[in-house]
């Protein structure tokens, strides 16, 4: 039985809003975790501003552990934690929890990569002027790496869009849930095509916005 798309558009709009909400909240919380974690990886590494090998090894191991778990497995593995935090394992709010666990360590690595791109001479000049390690981090490293940070956060956001679609396998809501419930389980090809196109448009828009913002900062 073919679905009536005219009646189905409200569901598509609702699923799109759910995907945007999942990605937005997940990116916010994952950045709040990943940004300081990435900075910590940079400053505590050997020869870092606050070098601390034991702490670096612990943080590095934690990041590598979570990054080594495929999202679909992580999604199921932390269901008890998800239930503990939001009281349910189904719906948009429940999908945010595994998305944060997935994206936080990933963003930490991206932040680490961006900060390590800053030329050592810039840091050495700041040290010669008597700047403290945290002044160097927030007044030198982060501003110098801002363009790269924006590009890497764009990459992380696009990764979250793809992961949010996978959350549909456990009733996470959004376009992924819609595609599975109607496009896959009910063989509604039109719904599958529409959801794919919407995800493509979303990713293209995010990438273009990230490129434009990064380029604008680089020119300053």
Automatic annotation (TrEMBL):
What is the membrane topology noted in the UniProt record heading this document? Multi-pass membrane protein
Q: What's the protein here called? A: Methionine ABC transporter permease
Q: Which residues cross the membrane?
A: 20-43, 55-78, 84-108, 149-171, 191-210
The entry sums up its family as follows: Belongs to the binding-protein-dependent transport system permease family.
**Source organism of the structure:** Thalassobacillus hwangdonensis
Q: Which PROSITE patterns match?
A: ABC_TM1 (PS50928)
Domain ABC transmembrane type-1, residue spans:
16-208
Alphabetized, the UniProt keywords read:
Cell membrane, Membrane, Transmembrane, Transmembrane helix, Transport
State the compartments where it is located. Cell membrane
Q: Which InterPro entries match?
A: AA_ABC_Transporter_Permease, MetI-like, MetI-like_sf
């Amino acid at each position: 039985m073919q679905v009536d798309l005219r009646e189905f558009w409200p569901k598509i709009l609702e699923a799109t809003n759910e995907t945007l909400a999942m990605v937005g909240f997940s990116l916010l919380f994952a950045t709040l975790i990943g940004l300081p974690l990435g900075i910590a990886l940079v400053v505590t590494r050997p020869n870092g501003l606050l070098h601390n090998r034991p702490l670096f090894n612990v943080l590095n191991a934690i990041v590598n552990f979570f990054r080594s778990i495929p999202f679909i497995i992580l999604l199921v593995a932390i269901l008890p934690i998800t239930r503990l935090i939001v009281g349910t394992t189904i719906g948009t709010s429940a999908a945010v929890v595994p998305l944060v666990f997935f994206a936080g360590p990933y963003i930490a690595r991206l932040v680490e990569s961006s900060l390590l791109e800053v030329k050592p001479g810039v840091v050495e000049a700041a040290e010669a002027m008597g700047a403290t390690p945290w002044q160097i981090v927030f007044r030198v490293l982060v501003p110098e790496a801002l363009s790269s940070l924006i590009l890497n956060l764009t990459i992380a956001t696009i990764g979250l869009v793809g992961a949010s679609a996978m959350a549909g396998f456990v009733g996470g809501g959004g376009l992924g849930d819609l595609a599975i419930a109607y496009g896959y389980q009910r063989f509604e090809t039109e719904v599958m095509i529409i959801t794919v196109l919407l995800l493509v448009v979303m990713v293209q828009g995010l990438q273009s916005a990230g490129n434009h913002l990064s380029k604008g900062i680089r020119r300053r």
